[in-house]
Structures are given as C-alpha cells and as structure tokens.
Design a protein that fits this description.
The structure is a single chain. The radius of gyration is 18 Å and the shape is globular. It has eight helices and seven strands. It starts with 8 loop residues before the first strand and ends in an 8-residue tail after the last strand. Helix 1 links the parallel strand 1 and strand 2. The chain is of the alpha/beta class.
Length: 262
Amino acid sequence: MNIDLSNKNAVVCGSTKGIGRAIALQFAACGANVVLVARNEESLRKVLRELSASKKQNHNFIVADFSDPESLKVKIQNFISEHPPVHILVNNTGGPKGGEILHAETTEFENTFRNHLVCNQIMVQALWQGMKKEKYGRIINIISTSVKQPIKNLGVSNTIRAAVANWSKTLSVELAPFGTTVNNILPGATKTERLYSIFEARAKASGRSVEEIAKDWLVEIPAGRFAEPEEPAYAAAFLASPLASYINGINIPVDGGRLNCL
C-alpha cells in the first residue's frame, strides 16, 4: 500500500515535539501540506524547516496557546479565511501533571477539560465546513490508552481523556454521512518529554531512581520497550489517508500490547 496525502491540507496541533512533531513530519513525507500549531514560534519555525517539501508542498504554522481557547478560536478562524480548506485535523495536546485523583484540585480538571475537549471542539467547528465542502475529512485525536484502562497516578488525565474519547465517538456518528471520519489513536508509553517528566515526578515522590520507575513500566509492556514517536505517527498517516475511508469512530492503541482488554 502506498499512503499518499498529496494535495491534502493537514493541521497538526502540538506539533513542535514528541508525537505531534512525528505526525507532522510523516504527513509531509506522504505529500501533505502541513500547518503546524503550537504556542512557541521559534520551535514552530524549527519544525517547519524540517518538513519535507519533495512534492512542492506549502507548509505553514499558527502560533496558538490552548490554555486560551478564545484566542485560539480567533486565530484559527483568521487562518481559514485566508487559506484553502483543511482535509485533515490532528488534535494533540500535552497532558496535565500526574498525581492521585483524590488530591487533584478542581481547577486541574477545569483547565485540562478546556485545553483538551473545548479546544478540540473549537478546531472541529472551525475546520469541518471545509471538509464537508471537499467531501473529505479526517479528524484524528491523540489521546491515551487510559480511555480503556486507567493509568495509576494520572487521575485528571484519565478522566479528561475518557471525555474526549466519548466526544469523538459521538462526533463520528454525526459527521460520517458527509465523508468525514473521526478516530482516536491511543499511544502507550512513548519516548517523549511527557513520559520522562512522569518518570521524574514519580521518582521524586517515591525516593526511587528514574531508571527504576522506567523498569516498572517496561514490565507491563509485552514488547519490552517504549514506543518511538514515529510509531503512532504511522497509524495517524494511515487514518488520514483514503485507505482508511471506512474506519470510523474507533480507538487504535499503539502500546506494544500493554492493554489487558480488547
């Protein structure tokens, strides 16, 4: 199979590092015109230079902070008013700090809900009319395996990720008649700054080393290793392509077999 995203316009959120960056690079390698979205302009420009333009693509970026939904709404609306319709949207936002749910402040839930679900909704509402017009839409949400199996000491994240998954499933039913699919990728433990920040926090709280915490996680992964950021990116490229036109409303774990459920 040849995954070809030529002549497709893709918006990738959280695309300056980790899985978001890997997805942006993979989409560009497949021929898409990629619009990067993140809050740090210097980092955006750095990734922009890394994107392949072998098929004469035009790449771009939007500086936006998902902690400010109203500003995000204005910026994305301004962008689409001046650019061609978007075919592919990847919703991807960094997770909240870890900790037991019992001790989480209510503001942590509110902030995370806004950064994830509310901003996802803003992006979809802004871009979906273009997908409908083009009769081609792919909405891909990068969530977590916690929507199937909660992860210890990530209480707030477990809660909000599940809300995003149910929002996505509902949306998939509403948009299917118009040629738009909505799917979720559930990355397992992946070699990103986020993963190592979790290890460091747990090491500090327990008085153990980061290496010991990492070994505890590896025991639960049948593959015996952490994922590379490119691995969930490959799944995203497939879901974004015409090859996945009849796949809709599902969760795809990319976790090395860690989940104990179907």
